[in-house]
Write a structure and sequence with these properties.
Layout (H helix, E strand, L loop, with lengths): L9 H10 L6 H10 L5 E4 L6 H7 L3 E6 L2 H10 L5 E3 L11 E7 L7 H13 L1 E12 L4 E4 L2 E4 L3 H7 L4 E9 L7 E8 L10
Parallel strand pairs: 1-2, 1-4, 2-3, 4-5
Antiparallel strand pairs: 5-9, 6-7, 8-9
Length: 199
């Protein structure tokens, strides 16, 4: 994974928390609310400091996950009853299933092939015609910064990655820091997706 190890360092986690101050995924959670009934089960991939998890928990039975034990420990310290999983976004090594899977600027740390694998396994972790909602930075290509990979996507490049396990619902550009710098992808699990084995 593109951020493997980076967020296992307490200093890197603290620096990220400070950098992310003032940002959350309220706009994305509001999109999810238009498509997913209250009380549904939602798994967040890469919860980080847990801001979006708290927003999701206002309407949903929310489970947080991260590949960093530092983030999980940090959140559990203030929220001892939180439902949290140590989970890699590529391998998704859990048998639990959810009505929706959500991430906010997390899956861009994966390579294109890793994202393709992750989405296929996410389909297997969804109940029925469950949803996935993920946000990315808009653009093309990949860059490395401070040991982290950043893969940029457009509507077309995401269409090339999302497999037959999903039906396309929406791919919308929006603004986080600069005009049109982001986009979110909303997919619904296809009725004929089956339950492909988790490897």
């Amino acid at each position: 994974m593109g951020c493997m190890g980076f967020y296992d360092d307490e200093e890197n986690v603290e620096a990220y928390v400070q950098m992310a101050e003032g940002f959350d995924g309220r706009e994305l959670v509001d999109v999810l609310k238009k498509h997913l009934p209250p009380g549904s089960s939602v798994l967040e991939l890469g919860m980080g400091p847990g801001k979006d998890l708290a927003l999701l928990a206002e309407a949903y039975d929310a489970t947080g996950s991260d590949s960093s034990e530092v983030f999980l420990r940090r959140y559990r310290r203030d929220h001892p009853d939180a439902d949290l999983l140590l989970l890699d976004a590529v391998t998704l090594a859990t048998e639990r299933r959810f009505d929706a899977i959500y991430s906010n600027k997390v899956l861009h740390h994966l390579s294109v092939d890793e994202l393709r694998t992750s989405l296929r396994l996410q389909a297997a972790r969804l109940k029925g015609n469950g949803l996935v909602l993920h946000s990315f930075w808009y653009g093309e290509g990949t860059e490395e910064s401070h040991g982290l990979r950043f893969t940029y996507y457009t509507d077309a490049s995401l269409r090339a990655v999302a497999g037959a396990e999903f039906e396309w619902v929406a791919c919308v550009r929006y603004t986080e820091m600069e005009e049109g710098d982001s986009l979110y992808l909303l997919l619904r699990r296809s009725s004929n997706a089956g339950s492909s084995p988790v490897r």
